Amino acid sequence: MDLKYKNVASVYDLVYEARTEDVEFYVAQAAKAAPRRLAEFGCGTGRVTLKLAERLPDTHIVAVDMDADEIEVLDDSLRAEGIDTVETRCELIQSFRADDVDVAIAPFRVFQHVLTLAELEACLKQVARSMRPGGLFFFDLFNPSIPLMAKTGLTASQVFNDDEGHRIERVVNVNDRDYFRQTQLIEEDYKVTTPEGETYDLHWHYHTRYYFLGEVLPLIQRAGFEVIRVDSDYKGTPHGEGDYPGDLVFHLARA
Predict the structure, then answer these.
(1) Strand (E) positions, 85-198?
(2) What's 146-209's CATH class?
(3) Chain segment 120-175, per-residue pLDDT in tens
(4) pLDDT digits over 194-253, tens only?
(5) Contact assessment for residue 196 and residue 226, using Cβ atoms and an 8 Å cutoff
(6) Exposed (0-12), middle (13-18) or buried (19+): which is 241, by Cβ within 10 Å?
(7) Which residues of 28-39 are buried (b: 16+ CB within 10 A; e: fewer)?
(8) Following DSSP, what letter does each residue of 61-95 receive, concatenated?
(9) What is the pTM of this model?
(10) Handedness of CA 245, 224, 124, 129 (dihedral sign)
(11) Which residues contact 1 (CB under 8 A, 6 or more apart)?
């Protein structure tokens, strides 16, 4: 059987190819700072990384992710495009070691995968330790939606078709909510149909945590960052304005 999509990481770029607003934001912020060295935490398959490398050819980019399958996809893309300015690392944020990063980013709600306040504080402190004083750090989180917190079960049902005739049906369910710990189980299930009509399934089930602004700000400050501003979207709308629930988009500076 044709197994072009052997795991969820290999279908990720197809699923998220229409999501570009956050990519443009991170690339624009990095380009404005013109860093010598940039660290991207939670790089995944390189949705942001590849655009950064294209826009910043003189910047050394360290792309970090804990998922070996996603790093493999990114490595393949880097080789295919002949990019040699990106260093990939498969590791946890807490184990990242550097002290000369000028700009750091953690796109697409990476910290939602961090399930406790203590763990989040440890991540933020490690990012701070890796940076030069005055360095800039940008990341985003969900702004928790009160209506969505009351809903369980199906949250998305989508169909994607690639240029080779594969059909990918994606179903996302949210279950196992823990309102004390602010966690939930995300169940992403995919049915892949090959051009020949054969089918197979892929699954990615994981827990995430939602964070409120008031509990994140003290952790940011204790980690050694100053808050420049917090926006509710990638266009610069201040938090508390714009469409609800929006996002929490953080602009920080290393103290």
Answers:
(1) 86-90, 101-106, 131-142, 153-161, 167-178, 183-193
(2) mainly beta
(3) 999 999 999 999 999 999 999 999 999 988 888 989 999 999 999 999 999 999 99
(4) 999 999 999 999 999 999 999 999 999 999 999 999 999 999 999 999 999 999 999 999
(5) no
(6) exposed
(7) eebeebebebbb
(8) EEEEES-HHHHHHHHHHHHHHT--SEEEEES-GGG
(9) 0.97
(10) positive
(11) 194, 198, 200
Cis peptide before 147 (omega within 30 of 0): no
- Number of other CB atoms surrounding residue 180 within 10 Å: 5
Q: Angle at CA 180, nearest 5°, toward 42 and 219? A: 50
Domain spans in the chain, listed from the N-terminal domain onward: 8-144+210-254, 146-209
What single-letter amino acid sits at 181?
A: R
pLDDT at 176 > cutoff 70? yes
Q: How many CB atoms lie within 10 A of CB 20?
A: 13
Measuring CA to CA, how many Å separate 68 from each of 8, 27, 81, 150, 232?
12, 24, 20, 34, 32
Measure the CA–CA gap between 142 and 212, rounded to whole angstroms. Answer: 9
Classify domain 8-144+210-254 by CATH number: 3.40.50.150
